Amino acid sequence: MIILDDLSYDRKDQAEASVLFERIAERYERKSLLITANETFSGWNDVFPDPGMTVAAIDRLVHHSTTFELNVESYRRRKAGDKQNARRRQLHDDNPVNPFSGQLPDHGNVAQ
Prior knowledge:
Blueprint: E1 2-4, H1 14-27, E2 33-35, H2 51-62, H3 75-94
Parallel strand pairs: 1-2
Helix pairs in contact: 1-2
């Protein structure tokens, strides 16, 4: 099995597209090919410079295939958000008083 990850990440030049199409055609009806892409097939005109090649590649990929379209949040985006939220919590925990809020921290029943 060959795995092509993030296939639609960027536009291929003519030479790259030709090599990619040859690989897809070579594997067609012979061996396994797994592809991940962040674009639906309708957006693949931005991947291949030649519309005819785009149609031919998609035709070979979907024939005898199982296609999964996952409308879920990106794992990488979620992890980046988790890290950012953790940093914000840490900053808040390290600096509980916001000098711009005009409020003092509550230290319980401390005699003044």
